[in-house]
Amino acid sequence: MSSPETTGRDGGEQRNLTIIVVPHGELDTRSFVISYGKLKFLVVAGVALLLAFGVSLAILFPVLAQATRVQSMERELQQLESERARVAELARTLQEVEAQYERVRQMLGADAPVGSESVPVLPPLRTDTATTSRADDDGLEPSATIDLWPLSVPGIITRTINDARTTHTGLDIAVPANSYIRAAGPGTVRAAGVDEVYGQYVVIDHGGDLESVYGHASKLFVTAGDRVRRSEVIGLTGSTGRSTAPHLHFEIRRGGKAVDPLAFVRQP
């Protein structure tokens, strides 16, 4: 409770405010006397502090909001940088895929004109019941000549049958590993397997005492008894057998004797 007082130290009237505090459960009371002048001062000071606090909040709030926005923009920028890196990686991957696709197109001769002999024929699906008596409408001829370059790429001839350094029975053609090996003419696979010198090899009987031999393959797509078309892919180049680098060893035999392949085929 409170009560006003009017007694001043100098005998004049001074309005005071007495505040009496009665603690709960106690008989003693406490009194606080404060003049109206001091009370007004405290009220004015409190209002001023509240106004200052409000002005501070009004100034600080936009700053805090701007700081929060900056942090949000930094996070968005980091996310954009991460996405840009992923896009760049996807672009590089796409370029590599396009380059590989172009190499496959060139290997398969996709840009060559229709009927061009540079277009390889992919091997057909073969079954265990396949025999050498397939119909002639497969494009096979009983006595066809050998006239097709045995690779889907020109390659580099590193040795010929006339190599003066040592006896050599055919052409050594340096090419990248896993290039297509093509049948130089239609015929029947007389042998296909692994040899200590030739590595994985194929021998094709073309009729008329003519045979072609393909050595050092990394993979074969034919077996003995298969009939093959001219330009059919019969394997992939490699470095199996007695070899120091990927290449194709290509022979042509007449009556079992090696003859110069360049008398039959022409390098593109």
Can you put this structure into words, describing what you see?
The chain has 268 residues and is of the alpha+beta class. The protein has one helix at residues 36-108; strands at 2-7, 13-21, 30-35, 156-159, 171-174, 180-182, 187-195, 199-207, 210-220, 227-228, 233-237, 247-254, 257-259. Strands 4, 5, 6, 7, 8, 9, 10, 11, 12 and 13 form a ten-stranded antiparallel sheet that branches. Strand 8 and strand 9 (210-220) form a beta hairpin. The chain is rod-shaped and about 145 Å long. Mean pLDDT is 81; it is low at 112-116 and 129-142.
Compile the SSE list and pairings:
Elements (H helix, E strand, L loop, with lengths): L1 E6 L5 E9 L8 E6 H73 L47 E4 L11 E4 L5 E3 L4 E9 L3 E9 L2 E11 L6 E2 L4 E5 L9 E8 L2 E3 L9
Antiparallel strand pairs: 1-2, 2-3, 4-5, 5-12, 6-11, 7-8, 7-10, 8-9, 9-11, 9-12, 12-13
Structure, briefly:
The chain is an alpha+beta fold and about 270 residues long. The protein has one helix at about 35-110, and strands at about 1-5, 15-20, 30-35, 155-160, 170-175, 180, 185-195, 200-205, 210-220, 225-230, 235, 245-255, 255-260.
Element string (H = helix, E = strand): EEEHEEEEEEEEEE
Radius of gyration using CA atoms only: 49 Å
Given the structure, what is the number of helices? 1
Report the uncertain regions.
112-116, 129-142
Average pLDDT across residues? 81
**Strand content range:** 25-35%
Shape estimate:
rod-shaped
Q: How many strands appear in the DSSP assignment? A: 13
Helicity level? 25-40%
